[in-house]
Specification:
472 residues; alpha+beta; Arc Repressor Mutant, subunit A; 9-stranded mixed sheet; 3-stranded antiparallel sheet; 15 helices; binds zinc ion; binds manganese (II) ion
């Protein structure tokens, strides 16, 4: 039986805000003492009143808009009730029937061509705390309780684990591009739940799915999905595909899934409107302004780099990936110089240093250096030397380094002529060979002149001088 894989994702990403979603506690609790970023609101004390963080709302809708979603003029918050020690209020404040946005799409690049994946909805909600299970009991840290999340729900449009991973990576890039989230997997800023089912090819209906909860790396996402595909394929081939929806967890060390709950014990969240928060509304103009703020997205950027700026695929992919890289690159291109060559210097020289951002090197430095090279004032190797020197001392200009180190190429034709004359006089047999048709000798003469000038002669001018003399 030929089977088709159906995958949908739910992605939670923490918004990069100063404070939590409904209180003024610090949102950045990475590496701090447990339970030191808490207050009565995020601890759910009786009588507390949540207030919506405007920055979180703005970043949430910008993220949603970048995922192609329609921003809704009216949305509201709802309580999602469940009881668990990581949730001090006993309910999560989320959005149920009226999310901030819906109906988006994201384009991904696959080997066989591009594909559009539908985004069902993007909504805002607060996160729960973190539990650490030890031999002596469970420890609760509420620093994360109340931090702002966007939940991104996709359509079941993916047909392989690899497609799901590609989409997850693309969404990470998009969230970073708009500055909605750092989407840092290592810090738990982005997590996935994946739903997967299979069906015979040609069948239109969907079969009961398995939901894999809390995958916190791209590799775990891929591995868990591959594991489930194998498992479900076996069940289908044995004639006993799952007849009910189940929720499983992924055990990274054992590389297998574990049943968390089946349909009978599925949660009833008893959603109801959050009475302490007013609905969120946007005017048409506000929505238009949000859309106008969305910058060029990673895939479009990559294609523009390849098509308009003539970068290679690999260069474009690398630079378009993160704001630190493309902001620097585009700024250098704006200052002048051929984009393709700026990309070359940037990637091969500047990025060769992992601490390049701390060196103080500027787009102006890269542009100036390239222009010196393009004008024939310095050689390619001198350009590298200058950039490396600028990363040691970024107070200087490219020109100052060139002068200090005597890297300027000689373009004085009198001096070049004299060197060429001398080299030709010293190598009469080579000159005779060239005149007899052995062109290879020209490279030899060229090398001798460069050596005599200690690398300072401008190679095209040397070549010109040699050809002129051979022809007279
Ligand atoms: Zn708080
Ligand atoms: Mn959620």
């Amino acid at each position: 039986m030929e089977l088709e894989v159906i995958i949908g994702l739910e992605i939670h990403a923490q918004l990069s805000t100063k404070t939590k979603l409904f209180c003024s506690c610090d949102n950045d609790a990475f590496g701090v003492q447990p339970n030191t970023r808490v207050c009565p609101v995020c601890m759910g004390f009786p009588g507390m009143l949540p207030v919506l963080n405007a920055e979180a709302l703005r970043k949430g809708v910008e993220g949603a808009a970048a995922l192609g979603c329609t921003i809704k003029p009216f949305s509201k918050f709802d309580r999602k009730n469940y009881f668990y020690p990581d949730l001090p209020t006993g309910y999560q404040i989320s959005q149920f029937d009226q999310p901030i946005s819906e109906h988006g799409e994201v384009e991904i690049e696959l080997e066989g061509g591009n594909k559009i994946i539908g985004i069902t909805r993007v909504h805002l909600e607060n996160d729960a705390g973190k539990l650490t299970h030890t031999v002596n009991g469970t420890l609760c840290d509420y620093n994360r309780a109340g931090t702002p999340l966007v939940e991104i729900v996709t359509e079941p449009d993916m047909r392989s684990p690899e497609e799901a991973q590609t989409l997850a990576k693309e969404i990470q890039k998009i969230l970073r591009t708009v500055g909605a989230s750092t989407a840092d997997m290592e810090k738990g800023m982005m997590r996935f739940d994946a739903s997967i089912s299979m069906r015979p090819v040609g069948d239109e209906k969907l079969y009961p799915r398995t939901e894999i909860k809390n995958l916190n790396s791209f590799s775990a996402l891929l591995k868990a999905l591959k594991y489930e595909v194998k498992k479900q394929r076996k069940a289908w081939e044995a004639g006993s595909p799952s007849t009910q929806e189940v929720t499983v967890g992924w055990l990274d060390d054992k590389e297998e899934t574990k049943l968390l709950r089946d349909k009978e014990s599925a949660m009833d969240y008893r959603y109801f409107p959050e009475p302490d928060l007013p609905p969120v509304t946007f005017t048409e103009k506000e929505i238009k302004d949000i859309l106008a703020r969305i910058p060029e997205l990673p895939l479009a950027k990559k294609h523009r780099y390849i098509n308009d700026l003539k970068l290679t695929d690999a260069e474009a992919l690398k630079i378009a990936e993160s704001p630190e890289l493309y902001d620097f690159f585009e700024s250098a291109v704006d200052k002048g110089g051929e984009a393709r060559k700026i990309a070359g210097l940037f990637l091969s020289v500047v990025l060769a240093r992992t601490d390049w951002q701390k060196t103080g090197i500027t787009p102006q430095h890269v542009s100036d250096t390239l222009i010196l090279q393009t004008e024939g004032k310095i050689s390619a190797s001198a350009a590298k030397e200058i950039l490396n020197a600028l990363m040691e001392d970024s107070e200087k200009t490219a020109k100052e380094i060139m002068e200090e180190r005597g890297l300027e190429q000689k373009s004085d034709s009198g001096e070049i002529d004299a060197w060429v004359d001398q080299v030709m006089k010293e190598n009469p047999e080579v000159v005779a060979d060239i005149k007899a048709g052995k062109d290879k000798g020209i490279q030899f003469l060229m090398g001798q002149v460069m050596k005599m000038s200690r690398g300072s002669a401008n190679p095209p001018l040397v070549m010109q001088a040699i050809n002129k003399k051979l022809n007279t």
